[in-house]
Amino acid sequence: MDNDLVKRARNGDKTAFAKLYISYKDKLYRYAYFKLGNTHDAMDAVSNCITQAYLSIYSLKSEKAFSAWIFKILYRECCTILSKKAVDSQIQDIDRLNIESPQGVELAPELKEALSILYDDEKDIVLLSVIAGYNSKELGSMLGIKAATVRSKLSRALAKMRKYLE
C-alpha cells in the first residue's frame, strides 16, 4: 500500500502524501521525541521533516526506500536542532564572562585573550553572533556562506575559547 501512495505522491498527488504523513507521523514523532528529549523540539523536527519530504519527494528514487528516506530526513533535522542547542549553550557560557555594556565597547580581558586565539573568520562570527546578536542565517547571508557552516564555525570557535579559558 505504501508503495502505491509513494508513487502517487511522487507524481504530485497531495492526498497520497497526506495519507503517507498520517501513516508515518506517530513513528516520526516517537523517534524525534526520544532523540531530542522534549515535545516542542520533536514537533519542530517532524514538521521540518515533513515539509522537506513534501518538497523533495519527486527526487526519491524508489518507492520501497520511502521509509528509510523520510527517517534520514528526520535524523538530519534532529541533528540540526541538537547542534543549534549546543551553540546556544556555548553562547550562554560566553555571556557569563561579564562582558561590559555596549556603550563601553571594552571587553573583559579574559575574553580579549580568548578571542585572540581565534582565526579571523572565527572571530568575526563570534563577535557578530554573541556581541551583535545576528543569527546564523543573517551571518551566512553577510559572509556569503551557508547558515549551517556559520553554526559549525561558531560552535568550534566557542569550544576553542572555552578550552582556553579553563
Question: Keyphrases for this structure?
Answer:
166 residues; single chain; mainly alpha
Summarize the structure.
The chain has helices at 2-10, 14-36, 39-56, 66-95, 109-116, 120-131, 136-143, 147-165. The protein has 166 residues and is mostly helical.
Q: What would you say this structure looks like, in words?
A:
- With 166 residues, this protein is mainly alpha-helical.
- Helix content is 77%, strand content 0%.
- The chain is built from 8 helices and no strands.
- The chain has helices spanning 2-10, 14-36, 39-56, 66-95, 109-116, 120-131, 136-143, 147-165.
- Helix 2 crosses helix 4 and helix 3 (39-56) crosses helix 4 (66-95).
- 22% of the residues are buried.
Largest sheet: none
Structural class: mainly alpha
Strand content: under 5%
| Chain-averaged pLDDT | 82
CA-based shape: elongated
What string gives the helices and strands in order?
HHHHHHHH
Give the low-confidence spans. 98-105
Q: Roughly how much helix do the residues carry, as a percent range?
A: over 70%
Number of strands: 0
Rg measurement, Å? 21 Å
Distance between the termini: 57 Å
Write the layout of secondary structure elements.
Blueprint: H1 2-10, H2 14-36, H3 39-56, H4 66-95, H5 109-116, H6 120-131, H7 136-143, H8 147-165
Helix pairs in contact: 1-2, 2-3, 2-4, 3-4, 4-8, 5-8, 6-8, 7-8
